[in-house]
Amino acid sequence: MLSDTIAAVSTSVGEGGIAIIRVSGPESISQVAPLFRSRIALTEAESHTVHYGHIVNPGSGEIMEEVLVTVMRAPRSFTTEDVVEISTHGGVISVRRVMDILLQQQIRLAEPGEFTKRAFLGGRIDLSQAEAVIDLIRSKSDRAFSVALKQVNGSLSQRIGNLRQSLLELLAHIEVNIDYPEHDVELLTAEYVKDKSSEVMEGIDRLLKTATQGKILREGITTAIIGRPNVGKSSLLNALARENKAIVTDIPGTTRDVIEEFVTINNIPLKLLDTAGIRETMDVVEKIGVERSKAAVTEADLILLVLNNSEPLHEDELTLMEQIHGRQVLCIMNKMDLPSKLDKDVLFQYFDESAIVPMSVLEEEGLDRLEEAISELFFGGKLESGDLTYVSNVRHIALLKKAHKSLQDAFEAAEQLVPIDMIQIDVRLAWEQLGEIVGDTAADSLLDQIFSQFCLGK
Amino acid sequence: MSYEGGSYDVIVIGAGHAGSEAALAAARMGCSTLMVTINLDMIAFMPCNPSIGGPAKGHVVREIDALGGEMGRNIDKTFIQLRMLNTGKGPAVHALRAQADKFLYQHTMKETMEKTPNLTLRQGMVERLVVENGVCAGVITKTGTIYRSKTVILTTGTYLRGKVIMGETTYESGPNNQQPSVKLSENLRELGFELVRFKTGTPPRVHKDTIDFSKTEIQPGDEHPKFFSYETKSSDNEQLPCWLTYTSEETHTIINSNLHRAPMFTGIIEGTGPRYCPSIEDKVVRFSDKPKHQIFLEPEGKNTAEYYVQGLSTSLPEDVQLSILRSIPGLEKVEMMRNGYAIEYDAMVPTQLWPSLETKRLPGLFTAGQINGTSGYEEAAGQGVMAGINAGRKAQGKDPVILDRSQGYIGVLIDDLVTKGTNEPYRLLTSRAEYRLLLRHDNADLRLTPIGYEIGLISEERYAAFVDKKQKVEQEIQRLQNTKVKPSEVNSVLEEKGSAPIADGSNLLILMRRPEMDYTFVEQISPPPVLLDEEMKEQVEIQIKYAGYIEKQLQHVERLQKMEQKKLPEDIDYSDIHGLAIEARQKLAKIRPISIGQASRISGVTPADISILLVHLEHYNRVTAAKG
């Protein structure tokens, strides 16, 4: 805890052209070195020098991000420890790619206020600041705690709980075999260990899929903006992009006719799909427009249906509403600045009142309401990627991957007939790593499991 | 009338497994030591299983021996069976278990103690502690004798307000119908100690000649046994087998139809019993789908016909016990010699102790063994050695010796007790240790003998032998690493051992890492230049083969030790520390951890609280340094 390597993003996420990830600890330089490909080895770098290069996946060698890396050697750094600062392109995606790689090493996410704490413990911060440092730790960790609770939503924590229970039963079985060798408990076989660890690895894979397929992590929540031509789809997209500092503008060379924008709304990454832009002849446009909307609809996690308040509902719009019924939809009544000709009673048949957002994109009115509605859906747990429990937190992903690796080690050890008490080390590690996600690492539950699962005693 | 009975450095109350180790350790360190006990015939008595060792427990015996304690030597002299358990598993969990000749075990221990310089044995019932200026300064017995001392160690076992229960019958008693210690318990309460009520139990004993062994399975000892003590090199002891049988359907029917008479269920028993040592009625009720339970028949000694019926611990009425016994194959005509019973007793809430086993409330008073909430002879003896060492050192004006969780099961045991407390009688299990791979049966000497030597419990001669072993092992590992081999030199031997041949040059260390390889391979290819005994070869083999796993755990330990080295001042006022959560504040004030490491293991103390403590500690140290 005192000398391990910690990392955190030290700039605010999603803002600015550059993000800085700070890594601190006596071994920070040697631990980042294998992840950084550059003209010079990081371990050779002089203090306070900047190096251009790439963060690579140490396993595959795949290039992950273009970065600038600064090395600051102890004690001439903020924390007084060796510090590595990695500057990446700003925005959620780049930062997460780098953090993802870092946290899979022997590097952990810094606790709230931990850099400051280390700076203080290293004598960098004046004694009179002790109380301020404590306040920082306290307030940040209290806030982090409530945020963390939100992040581990019910279904994720239940799934993790189930995986942990499987491991706990395996552990109890191992422990009983070790601690009660003369009892007539079922002898543990390598096959059993392999079966159980494969089962849990599969479960972890399923969870990781939601993260690594990148739906949310890399691209954001896929959000389709649909509607008839001229209702204001593009204006809405532009307004959202302008308002929310789009991270990436339209991807060049895309063969798709759909324009994509990436935005973050209250830290929720969204990938906006707009079906606008094709309008040759009216007949064709309407046809193609509806078809494109259909395609966008099938792939979307969230649908923004834009309607024109100043016109009656069109037949196509009724068809669309029929199609998207039951999905996560926000219905935007645009052009509220014009006289209303829209039949709202029909809308109420399809949508909750909370899902209907009156707006005037032109007058820039109602945008905040839309953003709020998106946040509510997201934090209310209604917005999920596909039908899978969704994992987006980098710390969770890193822990899931570490747990997977531990189980893989256990599996391979079992295959090589390594003694059971050594296999246990990796199984236990996996159990603890999963426990960290849901904030439960109490070892007592193992003993409870042993004594409830087996009949023991003299 | 009272009178002065003499003055000592250390007084030990009780002579069980904790008391005898404590007294021997203190006396051997040069402290004038008095051991007072209710009945001198009960020194190192085994009121329950006539057996020592097993996983974790056997490890503790090795550790006691490595520190210079007596349990290992004593059981090596008096065993009637030795078995190494878990041999199919990794070396860390190999565990030696012995059946003891329980009478010989006692007599041998008593003889050792009688011959030990500086140690006085005295029969007597201690009723009060002498407290002077807030410090424990001696004891007063029932007969009015006042013995004075610099430190006192309480090892009261199950005697404190002991109460025996069987069926409807209950009476005040220590184990095996000994006198209980009632007044002392009252005195502890008066002194402000928090006591809890725990319960344990023991099965009936039966007459050998009434057992039909033909209906049971034989369980012999190992043909070439290993020993507990590093000093024991051979033994002529003749081994006796144990016998295995099972409960029957009828057994379970009898139990189920007599549950209304079982104190466990009628509410007569108020003490908390251990989950890992349930009574037979408990097992039958809780695991009702299990058709039968194992019963081991264990001889209690060479010169006795009494057999211990392991697996049948019970507090059912005497008549039911007899019916149960006779429902078991092989015991149809058995004669019961002593019935099983449950016993309730007072124990200290162990969070009232420092890791040195000294009480926080009353300086000079130490407690060890079952009084601290543990069960088991080995757990008691392990604490006994440490309490003896630390009470002795305190009397000599020296700092206590505290083993951490990476140094031994004794460290794990004591740290668990004083940091987390226990709500049932505590038994050691290997799963309680984070660094099981480091806490092996084979390397207890490497872990602890240097400490034992420094304390003065390991003789020069033994220490020299230890250093010789250590050096030879290190040199041999170095030699294997330096011994390069070509394919032509080793491939035929590799093939012989069913191991894949090598294509390029290698060294012996790398080849030894292969799972199928053992030291005989080295002996065939390149015998060591100096003679290595079996223990040394085993050590070389284990250290090489499991180096990867061992290294991983050592890295963890390094981090742990940094936290342990951050000492918290004794006078720290937690209510005064800004920013600590309320729960953390209360827990810290109660436990008063000696280090950040210990603080981090208290339940309810979060990482944020630890960060705040660290900042506070830094602040404190800087201010203290500034004051000079």
TrEMBL record, chain A:
Mg(2+) binds at S234, T255. One of its GO terms (molecular function) is GTP binding. (6S)-5-formyl-5,6,7,8-tetrahydrofolate binds at R22, E85, R124, K458. SUPFAM superfamilies: P-loop containing nucleoside triphosphate hydrolases, TrmE connector domain. Its EC number is 3.6.-.-. Keywords: Cytoplasm, GTP-binding, Hydrolase, Magnesium, Metal-binding, Nucleotide-binding, Potassium, tRNA processing. It comes from the Bacteria. InterPro entries: G_TrmE, GTP-bd, GTP-bd_TrmE_N, GTPase_MnmE, MnmE_dom2, MnmE_helical, P-loop_NTPase, Small_GTP-bd. One of its GO terms (cellular component) is cytosol. Its cofactor is K(+). It is found in: Cytoplasm. The keyword Transferase does not apply. Binds 1 potassium ion per subunit. K(+) binds at N230, T249, I251, T254. GO terms for biological process: tRNA methylation; tRNA wobble uridine modification. GTP binds at residues 230-235, 249-255, 274-277. It is an enzyme of class 3 (hydrolase). Residues 220-379 form the TrmE-type G domain. Belongs to the TRAFAC class TrmE-Era-EngA-EngB-Septin-like GTPase superfamily. TrmE GTPase family. Exhibits a very high intrinsic GTPase hydrolysis rate. Involved in the addition of a carboxymethylaminomethyl (cmnm) group at the wobble position (U34) of certain tRNAs, forming tRNA-cmnm(5)s(2)U34. PANTHER family: TRNA MODIFICATION GTPASE GTPBP3, TRNA MODIFICATION GTPASE GTPBP3, MITOCHONDRIAL. Homodimer. Heterotetramer of two MnmE and two MnmG subunits. This is tRNA modification GTPase MnmE. The lineage of its organism: Bacteria, Bacillati, Bacillota, Bacilli, Bacillales.
TrEMBL record, chain B:
Its cofactor is FAD. GO terms for cellular component: cytosol. FAD binds at G14, A15, G16, H17, A18, G19, V126, S181, Q370. NAD(+) binds at residues 273-287. The keyword NAD applies. It comes from the Bacteria. Transmembrane segments: none annotated. It holds the Pfam family SAM_GIDA_C. Its main location: cytoplasm. Keywords: Cytoplasm, FAD, Flavoprotein, NAD, tRNA processing. NAD-binding protein involved in the addition of a carboxymethylaminomethyl (cmnm) group at the wobble position (U34) of certain tRNAs, forming tRNA-cmnm(5)s(2)U34. Belongs to the MnmG family. Homodimer. Heterotetramer of two MnmE and two MnmG subunits. This is tRNA uridine 5-carboxymethylaminomethyl modification enzyme MnmG. It comes from Paenibacillus rhizophilus.
